[in-house]
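Appendix B, Record 12. Input sequence as logged:
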Amino acid sequence: MRIVVAPDDFKGSLTAGAAARAIADGWCQVAPDDELDVCPLSDGGPGFVDTLAGALGGELIPATIRGPLGSPTPGAVLMVGDVAYVESAQACGLHLVAEGDRNPGRTTTFGVGELLRLAIESGARRVVVGLGGSGTNDGGAGMLAALGATADVPLDEGGLALRSATRVDLSGVYESLGGVARGDVAGGDAEGGGVELLAATDVDNPLLGLSGASKVFGAQKGADDNLVLQLDAALESFSRAIGRRPNGKDPAVALGSGAAGGLGYGLLCVGATRVPGIATVIAATRLEDRIRAADLVITGEGLFDWQSLRGKVVSGVATVTMPTARPCVVIAGDVLVGRREFSALGLSSAYSVADVVGSVDASLADPVGSLTMTAARVARTWSH
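Logged structural output:
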């Protein structure tokens, strides 16, 4: 058999590459004659740049940038010709904030703007920004500040600092991008040319409200119910101060504006075009061609839940696999989606590492060994 192994990272325990290797090792213990095509993926969150570097080559340009709480942190821009790829999680990822320090009212996306500046200074004419896995909720205010935005409130001190915003000037950002953005694209429609921005998002949530950045994702970043309400109100003030785009559209209601704590909104405000992050990676890795040459597809992630069904790696892999009629199996740290829901995506089965080893805690105590053991068990069912 030929098997494509295409997981996302297992957040907090394994990178996508490490997860793919563990699955492959477990499979080979049971079926050593099977041919494995290992293809780690990302939906725009952690691992976005590494995955694309492996698929596209190019040059990694390292930098030291401001982390979500202000401490210096390493990052890199991937340059492939005049196209740059930026991973926002390198600058504002939740993994950069210790559990006891998680407070999305204080964390900033300033470092993302620093990476964008590096990309532009390195000659990029198009910048693809991967969004996902953030520990921030500042609507992209920090990023905009790093690119030259000014306001009547601090833009680089987190979401709560935006509560009383009444004036935001983005002219410095447009200057950094090489022109005044019009329409929906910063580059092609900018006066005198400019840099085209693409926001590769892992979710399609809007900025505000019940399905917005604060309400849906605030708690996992450390916000209690009261802070969630405060952050939503702060982002509403921020968006009101910015106003609509020159074309009359309100980026706060656009699909993906709530991605990465509203970082999607900040990019859309200055003319970025939103694209699904997983689609960007699938195209770069030629995943569809690799699946057509396979007999079975295995994907996975740390937690297979309702969010997995909307714009994440698992749903992206399932969407590509379904027309090929190849079976697609999920191996996840834990599975919270029922068979009816995942079958609707075209997925054949879902296996929980926690069920195999006894508990979530046991799986986290030895993530590589637990995932390897689970993959071996799945191989006994699917290899023939």
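The radius of gyration is 21 Å.
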